[in-house]
Amino acid sequence: MPTGTWWFIGAAWGELLIAAVLLRTRSGTSGTSDVPPPQALALLRGGRRAAVTVALVALHQRGAVAAGRKHTIRANGGPGRTRDPVQLGVHGALRRALALRALTQRPEARRAVDALRGELSGAGLLRPPARLWAARALLGCVPVTAVAGPFAAGASGAGLAMALAAGAPPVLVAPALLRLPDTTGAARRLLTDLRERYPLPAHRHEVTDGWLVQLYVALYGDPALALFLPRFSRDGGLLDRPPGQDRAGPVGRPRPADRNRPPVDGGSDADGASC
Q1: What gap in Å lies between CA 217 and CA 87, rounded to an integer?
Q2: Dihedral angle computed from the Cα positions of residues 83, 273, 48 and 240, in that order, rounded to the nearest 10 degrees
């Protein structure tokens, strides 16, 4: 077997090991009793869209935003008394009515969410984006290096079979590492613990605290939106799925929002609690 073949096999193993090191994270801030802000929890659960959605819920509770035409969100005055960077960034992006997907891509909203992502990365709850992308690039190169390398080196026959066998382990492990989520194990444990502490209530009139409404939306997504803010969520296009088809997956089961139930205290459009 040509000597150059072993260089390719060694390179494939090296790419795999470096990627694994890049994907490792320090332990998160476990042991603290503080609950992270709802927007941070939403970012851990559902990414940028979920974080912007929770910010919109908080703004809506203060009457700062409302549902626009054709499933859009529009500003409805100033942002209110808040210093939250994500809420301010989202509100600042609403110079005109926007659909949720377009709103998440506005520079003001993106910068605010990216800053929050950086804080969560520093806390060990999210993998740093630069390291994550570097690791994924290396993992994408592993199959090319391990499979194409021996052919490029001129290996054939038994030598080629030996080289491919030696390169098989990193090729098989690389896809598993590629599927690792952005969140760390500490973040997933945190979300699981909070869902156990704050199960989604059966009726929205059980909750009168606006912050708790934001927390439920952060932890459960669509089911909580449909429960606490059915009209705003539907008219503003916040739901990932049409009403009646929400599924919470591993975070819980949906609970239908009965529009005939009495609203909780506060909130505009008779949706949700105000803070």
Answers
A1: 15
A2: -160
List Cα–Cα distances, 133 to 18, 49, 100, in angstroms.
Answer: 12, 20, 26
pLDDT at 274 (0 to 100): 52
Cα 23 → chain centroid: 17
**Contact at 8 Å (CB) between 231 and 85?**
no
Number of other residues whose CB lies within 10 A of the CB of residue 156:
13
Mean pLDDT of 208-219: 95
β-strand partners of 66: 74
Give the span between the Cα atoms of 77 and 183, in whole angstroms: 35
Q: How far is CA 51 from CA 39, 56, 155, in A?
A: 5, 9, 52
> For residue 70, which of 90, 102, 99 has the smallest C-alpha distance?
99
Query: Which residues, 6 or more positions from 91, have their beta carbon under 8 angstroms from its beta carbon?
Result: 59, 64, 65, 75, 78, 79
The predicted-structure confidence for 151-201, as pLDDT tens digits, reads as follows 776 666 776 778 778 778 888 888 888 888 888 889 999 999 999 999 999
pTM assigned to the model: 0.73
CA separation (Å) from 24 to 17, 27, 130, 176, 181?
11, 9, 13, 14, 12
**Amino acid identity of 204?**
R
CA–CA gap between residue 257 and residue 203 (Å, rounded): 8
Name, in order, each residue with C-beta under 8 angstroms of 44's C-beta and a sequence gap of 6 or more: 120, 125, 126, 183, 187, 190, 191
CB 103 within 8 A of CB 90: yes
124-138, 200-214, 222-236, 243-257, range with the lowest pLDDT: 243-257
